[in-house]
Structure prediction request, 344 residues.
Amino acid sequence: MKTGKYLFFLSCLNIPLAREEALAIIESETGEYPAFESMERILIVENLLEKTAREVVERSALTKWAGRLILSIDYEHRDEICKAVKAIDETLLAQDPGKTFCVRVKGIGVKDAHIEGDIGYIIKSKTGQRVNLENPDIVYAGVLMPSRFFLTLQVKPYTKPDIGARALKYRVFPHPSSLDPRLARAMVNLSRARKGCKFLDCFCGAGGVLLEAYLIGCIAYGIDIKLKMLIGCAMNLFQYSSYAFTILGDARNLMIREKSIDAIATDPPYGRSTFLPSDLKNLLSETISQSYDVLKDKRFICFGAPIDAKAEDLVSKREFEILTRIPFRVHKSLTRVFYVLRKR
Prediction:
């Protein structure tokens, strides 16, 4: 199958988190962490199958769209962009003259109200395709920066998760400790979970992470120490026609067979009213130790912790490698850090 260079346009919610989520999905699908180029909200990956690029868009919470890169230029004057579009090899464009198309350009740090129309006129002349702004068959998606321009043939995913429909305010059992569904989905993806794998959340709470794991096709297992939370978790899963195996238990003493879990993503409780700092460190240390035992070799865990917990010191006590450490500001008194670890 033919590979190409693909551009991914990322959410601005947290660009480092969005970038790592996309790369983690690629690694879970291909078995290799890809070489990449990144700037602002743009991620470019070479030697990628279209199927994999589509998978990133479908699974990701923080990738807006992706496209096969057909033009990348540095420019000083906008006329250079139009000349470059005219010079594009026609084999890189969509070939069916009976299809309709549109051009959509996103500006980063610069605006040009006419660039879409100018590029559209050129493509129409080259391909004979008709313009349809409402429901086009083909989308030429571009990114305009102050001195750089990219044009892609956008990948159309089969489906795209409607994460907004799973916002906390719509759930039958909302809980203030629950993660935003975009963050929950990102954590699942960072754990390199994939369809058919055994996934564990050892602090499942109201089930937000389990829900996202189920929706990408995982066999999901959740553990919580509070029966009330497990009942609420079941209610939330049922609301979205989802399912997970839930267990009343303690993350510090996982009653799970060793090396039986493919991926772990979890967000331990760490509100000020929940634990003293020393208690939280003990909880994290014991949870990491137990996770090591149940996780298969060379597999991944993603977890969150407050920035002042200094989880790096706890990780060093077990044979985990820290791959990623991404701060995420929740509010002025809490910055959460997402860690991704690989079992050696």
Q: What stands out?
A: The chain is about 30% helix and 30% strand. Residues 163-343 form a domain with the Rossmann fold fold (CATH 3.40.50.150). The two ends are 32 Å apart (CA to CA).
